[in-house]
Each structure stands twice: as C-alpha cells, then as structure tokens.
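User: Fold this, then the next.

Assistant: Folding the first:
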Amino acid sequence: MLQSIDNRTDDTLSRLRDYIREGRFASGDRLPPERELVDRLGTTRANLRRALETLERSGTIWRHVGRGTFIGDGQSCAMAHEDAVAELGRRISPLRVMQARLCLEPALAREAAIHASGEAISAFRLAQQRARAAASWAEYEAQDDAFHHMVARASDNVLLLSLFDQLNRVRRTVAWGNVERRSTRPPSDHSSFAEHEIIAAAIADRDPDRAWSAMRDHLRSVSERLFP
C-alpha cells in the first residue's frame, strides 16, 4: 500500500514539474488554483498537495494563504533555508532538540488520530514492518524517521508538517556524539518497536488523547536512552 501511495505522489510530482517547465513560469508567477491543477494533472487533491509540499520545501514554489501559490527562486531560497537550518543546529543542543520534539510531536499524533486517512494508517503499518526487518541501524533509523514523518503528514495540516520538517532538518545537523551500538541491527526487543505500535494503534482507533500520550511516552523513552 505505501509503495502505491508513494508511486502516485511521485507521478504527480513529475507531472507538476513538467507543467511548470512547459508553462514557462517565471519567478513570482502565480500557479492556477488547486482545483484547476487537479484537473490539468489528472490527479487527486491529496497527491497534488504532497507534490506541492515537496516543491515548497525545495524552494521551487512558495505559498501565501489567501493569495495563492507562486513560483520561487529555488536555488537562492533553498540555500538561504539550509544556512538558517545549519545556524540553528550550531546554536542548539541535542537535549533541546528532544525537548522541542516533546512539545510538537505528541500534538501531531493527536491531530493524526483525528484526521489520518485509511491509506495513512496502512502506511504506518508498512513502515513498522520495514523497521523490524531492517538489516542495519542506518536502515532502521531511515524507517524510524519515515514513521514520524508519516504521523506529521497524517495530521493533514500543512503548517504543522512544515514545522515538523524544519525541526527534523535541525535534528539532523546537531552533533549527537557517538551513540554506542552493541549489535549491527536493532534487537527484536528494541523498545521503539512496541512504542511505535502503540502510537499507530491509538491513531487507528481515532483516540487523540491516547495518541498524544503514546507519542510523549515514546519520545521520553528515547530521551532517557540518549540522556540517562
């Protein structure tokens, strides 16, 4: 299921990029409204919004509430954004990053329990399966990151997703030091496996309070492992 969702999103992203290129849009030009783009690209509004989010993160477009979506200067926007992220990474400690996650991600889980689609819930399950099957810590961490991003995306709130992505980029730039690994891959009883299952179950059950608590407990568990 996740693969088919990703394929549809990638196809919409490719069509949208082609549409912008072939339309010879210049920096500052406004794109047509979403309903018109859905018809032109032959896609769904959900897949269009994911594609727009990807282009916005790269600086290709920018959006103004009430005014529309505009073509941006992708290179300069992206460079300025990365510089800002790097500067934040230099100024913040790993502990402060975890505290920020504890502020934001439980709220995202709460919103996901209210708004998550059936496809999103299926995607959680597949991410969990891939994490358990990971052959290395690096592969596991990629799936762990994907799981948390899916929760943020399932909130169905582009501003909250943008805040999560910003936090996640800063997290990647922070020097976490050497994390000791006693195995080449996560053990079968790695605590995050069960914690992710509890989060996914609460979201699937449409229980916002339980989802909030499950994400908070998970992040506290991670924090205790990193900062005993």
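Now the next one, as you asked:
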Amino acid sequence: MGFCFAWIGSIWAVGIDAQSMRAGFVAFLVALSAYNLVRMFTSNPPATAQMRYSWHWLGVLGAASGTMGGLFGVGGAVVATPVLTSVFGTTQVVAQGLSLALALPSTGVTLVTYAVHHQVDWMIGVPLAIGGLLSISWGVKIAHAMPERLLRGLFCGFLVLCAVMLAFKV
C-alpha cells in the first residue's frame, strides 16, 4: 500500500507549485509535532511486542504514509512512527525501524517519479545519499541509547526546527 500510494502522492506533488508545497509541508510538520507533543504528555498503555490491531490496519497506515511520502518526500516515516507507537502500541525504536521498512519501497518509487519529471538534481542528491549511508549507523546507535521520552522530544524539536526554517526560508 505504501508503494502504490507513494506513487500517487508523487504524481500529485510534481504538479504543485513550489510555494504551495512549502506551505503544505510546513503545516504538515507543525501538525505532526503537535501530535507528538500531546502524546508525550498523555498516558498511553505500555508498549508491547504485540500490535494492538491486525495487519489489515497496517495497509491503511501504509496508504496514508505512502501518500505523505510521495507528496512531501519524507512524510511516510514521520507519519508512521507516531501512529505505530500510539495506535499500534509499539516502542519508539521499533516504530522507527518499521517506518524505515515502509519508507524504502515508497522512497524508491517517489524518487523515480520525481526523476522522470526532472525534479532531481543528481549532482546534489548522490553526495547526500552517500553521506547519509555512511552516517546512519551512528544515528541508530544514539537512538537506542536514549530514553524514549527524550527521543520523542528531540523528534518534535527537529520537526519544529525544520518547519521554522522552511517557513522563513532559512
């Protein structure tokens, strides 16, 4: 579902003007951060190894996350992570891992769609990809070493920082 809906979202995205896309992404980041902040200060049932809902509902989450990933490029994983922790009951680290599994095929189809529409600058993208691949294991180690509440707080702060930078074109 994530793959199919990422393709639909990316086709939609390449037809949207840059200013509208920026405003939509800022709103998306602010809403996602607010949702995560509310979750940090509300009581939730303890996380478990078992998902609270059947795999059919994962398809719905995949469709929504894929659409956001196709539309905004990074939306899939950042939508899936809080939903997996709050609705499905996974831990933060497990949710992040599952979100990355969702993001891999969705990102591939989104990248191809953007590239076909000449929206990818490979001279910038390739070095970014290499840097990300070389440093991702550090981020995973740091995430596993942090208390879950701190990790969620940092995630919210990161979302707000990105929204502010985009809103003010920093």
